[in-house]
Specification:
alpha/beta, about 55% helix, five-stranded parallel beta sheet, elongated, about 210 residues, single chain
């Protein structure tokens, strides 16, 4: 697997299952951390690199499905691959609808699990990349002056420099200056590029 330092978390109350999964995952170069309960996992630090969670449905205390729901409400969210020896269709449907990557019933083939882990880690990697991109965009937008943000809002609405100047009471040349500066600060290579950035930031251009 060509993954940059991914971590796979295993939560299962059966020590033999935990050890078997750890050996399998480590055999393909993955870092593994295991826990015997949902509460033990919740007490751990969130992953700082792409990760996924292999989670048993039935656990002492907080169940796997309850943990899934709780994680969805926190910043500890991580893609989940469910495993169970007592699964049923309603349970698997509930898990998948809530965002689980896969729901595997024991016994399952090693390759099935590894494929699911690969998919889950990639999903987390993509989500982290999107979060990094959005944080960078928000930082760029925050670097704009109030006037530059105002001009950007009008640009998104499709107004030309002359119209923007009339709207906010400044000259067309001054608008052009602000546009140039905001394009530079946003690192936009074209108007289309700037519009895409604004849309990602939720700047719809509505008045």
């Amino acid at each position: 697997m060509s993954l940059e330092n991914p971590t796979v978390y295993v939560v299962d109350d059966d020590v033999s299952v935990r050890e078997a999964l750890k050996n399998l995952l480590k055999s393909v170069g993955l870092k593994v951390e295991s826990f015997n309960s949902a509460d033990a996992f919740l007490s751990s630090k969130p992953a700082t690199a792409p990760a996924c969670l292999i989670l048993d449905v039935r656990l002492p205390g907080l169940s796997g499905l309850d943990l899934q729901r709780q994680l969805a409400q926190t910043n500890h969210a991580v893609p989940i691959v469910f495993i169970t020896g007592h699964g049923d269709i309603p349970m698997s449907v509930r898990a998948i609808k809530a965002g689980a990557v896969e729901f595997l019933t024991k016994p399952f083939r090693d390759q099935e699990l590894l494929d699911a882990v690969r998919q889950a880690v990639e999903r987390d990697r993509e989500a982290r990349n999107r979060e990094t991109e959005m944080a960078d965009l928000r930082q760029r937008y925050a670097s704009l002056t109030t006037r530059e943000q105002q001009v950007l809002g009008f640009v998104v609405r499709g107004l030309i420099n002359k119209q923007i100047g009339a709207e906010i009471g400044i000259s067309e040349a001054t608008v052009k200056m602000h546009r140039g500066r905001l394009m530079e600060k946003m690192r936009a290579e074209s108007l289309a590029d700037l519009i895409i950035m604004a849309q990602k930031l939720g700047l719809t251009g509505k008045s």
